[in-house]
Design goal:
The chain is of the alpha+beta class. The chain is built from one helix and three strands; from the N terminus they run H-E-E-E. Among the domains are: 32 residues; 33 residues.
Length: 96
């Protein structure tokens, strides 16, 4: 059996951890200097269906589907579509 030098591995891991921590601290001070606050986050992603579309979810199919407003997805079995989009009052939910 080949003996490993565990002390070296431990020092290397500690050096990596320390370098990550220093980089994190540096990014934090850079954000404070530029006036940014809060955690590092990217741009907010748009979620939901596009304007004028309704988004439906089917648990048995494990997927979502976008359809034009006021139309249901095909009623193929199993017909378990759930409307996710909150419709405005002039766009009432279609009759099943």
């Amino acid at each position: 059996m080949k003996r490993r030098n565990y002390g070296f591995d431990r020092r290397r891991r500690e050096d990596l951890r320390r370098a990550k921590q220093e980089a994190k601290t540096q990014r934090k001070t850079d954000r404070e200097a530029s006036g940014s606050v809060g955690p590092e986050m990217g741009e907010a992603q748009t979620t939901g269906a596009p304007e004028g579309m309704w988004e439906w979810f089917s648990a048995s199919r494990a997927r979502t589907l976008a359809t034009p407003a006021r139309t249901r997805p095909p009623a193929d079995p199993p017909d378990d579509w759930i409307l996710l989009t909150e419709a405005s009052e002039e766009e009432a939910a279609p009759e099943a």
